[in-house]
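The passage that follows is intended for readers who have already worked through the single-chain material. We present the inputs for a multi-component assembly, then the predicted structure in tokenized form, and finally a short commentary. You are encouraged to pause after the input and sketch how you expect the pieces to fit together before reading on.
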Amino acid sequence: MKFSKLVKVTFVAAGLGAFVLATMAAASETKGKYFFKKNCKTCHTEGKSGKLVTPLTKTQAQWKQYFSAGKHDHAKEQLSKYLTPEQIQDVEAFLVAHASDSPQPETCGG
Amino acid sequence: MKKLGVLLAVLMLPLGLWAQSNEDLMKQIEALKQQLQALEQKVAEQQQAAPAQQYQDLDARVAKVESKESKDNIAWGGDMRVRYDYQNWHINPYNQFAGFGPMGPIYQPVNAQDWTNAMQWSLRMRLKMSAQINDNMKFMGRLSMYKLYGGADVPIFNGMPNTVQNDFASTRVPSGDILHVERALFLYKFPTSHISLAIGRMNTSDGPPMEVREETERQGTPQAIMVNAEVDGVHVEYDLGAIGMPEGTSIGICAGVGYEAGFGGGGQVAENYTMTPFGMGRINAMRDSTVIGWIYDMPLMWMTGNTVNNARFILGYNRFNNMTDIPYGTLINFPIPGPYAQSSPQYVTATNNLGDMDQWGLTWKHDIGDNFTYFLSAGYIKSHPNGKVSQYGFGGLLGDPDHSKTGSAYWAGVQWRPNTLVTLGLEFNHGSSRWFTYTPSAGEPSDKLAARGDVWEGYLHWNFAKNVALKFGYTHYSYSTAFSGWQIAPGDLSYFNLNNNTYNFYPFPKTVKNAYMMLEAKF
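Having made your guess, compare it with the prediction:
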């Protein structure tokens, strides 16, 4: 095989591999942020019925433990009442990635 | 009859024996019952005692954590980076200023040349700290050390702004093994008013959209194309989400000081002359150099099909007042090679206020799902010179002390993350021949966002372990005009087109090729 052909084949294989990896299903932080705002923040905001909850409310380990228990409202109900299993995974990915012990934005607004 | 009696007695004998054994059995059962009851009581006592013991153990452990927590006022984090750089500078032919003769300035022609530094290693360590002072007030800080391998504490001035070590870039260009204070500020959120205040040495470096290339959270407030420097100042912000704008939208007003004229020199007396390279110069009676500006910042989020879009729109304005010619700093060989050149470290400082400048910036950043990001950023400046020039011989604001001039720049980038381990990015920026931006903290061998010309950068990041990344990149600078990064020039900048044989003080490069490799860990 000529060297140029080998290079082309390598690039095509690498591209295909990357595409396959890109399309593999995994928990999505961006979706998690969206569903957290859409489903959770409607109540968990200052002045609303639920206690204020932000990603900073818990550490990474605490969020993982919370989602592993899968309960809501002091274990009175299932989390699945509000989110589908996929949404739960996405929201967990978002909250863990932005937990109080994760890197935080550093701006003049805090 | 007697026989019958004996027979009955024999027959009754087992019944007596049975009655005897039944009584024993009952006694045994009773004893067993008592033992069982005692055992149950013991088990119950143990069951009652066990949680109490567990709680005691837990309490002891929590108390230990609380004691430690109460003593740890400051939460620490940080990062460390080892970087390799290869650089090649190509310098077109030019005429080197060599001093003054009887008929005026003397220049010596210099041929085209290449300068290569095939191996430069550097080490950067940053320690981040924060402390919650009370419910509304927080302290944030960052200590940084950035050095080249080997000794190169005081740079040789080569015409590039980052070879003047100064307060605005002390931690962002290599400056030895000293730990500097890069950031130190208070953040105060006024209760129930949606207003926050930040004051101190501010988060004003590596602002948006620099976090895309750096693969981190947002690192600063001002847009990187406008300000990338360690600025001491104040910032007041109002949360527009409180009045129905998208959550996180804010408007902020900021102010900072660029040059303090009243401490130890300029401004305290009206008339004072001192030696400059060109003779006696009036360096005092200067005014403070300040900046005041505002920034509108709006995050947006929406869903198209199954894809979540995260975007951010930022619009900002700064007014630089009483700009000076050069910052206070340390270096070797400034300002002019020749009789005034010094081979030992020397200090330089501002000699004049040159006027004001308006600066506008706009940024749009858009994350499409988890795998793709692009951004566009643009800047525009307009000078308002006051007729004065630098007493080092470096002219007035944007090279013209008498007329207002403008400059512009744009910066675009894309990033693709095929998986969680690999990131590929490509960026391009262009600056016009009079473009100036205040970005001495860029942290690169050459400040790409200040370039007058075109810059391409491509990079690949491999996040091979949690919080650890190996980064490869290549940056190609193609300058059109000399004095990139400077707000001053000895004459109109059209004279300093690097395609012509310029008459110049320094060998400004036409092209710079910079290949780099970094190992970076966050902790």
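Commentary: The longest helix of chain B spans residues 2-71. Helices of chain B lie at 2-71, 210-214. How closely did your sketch match?
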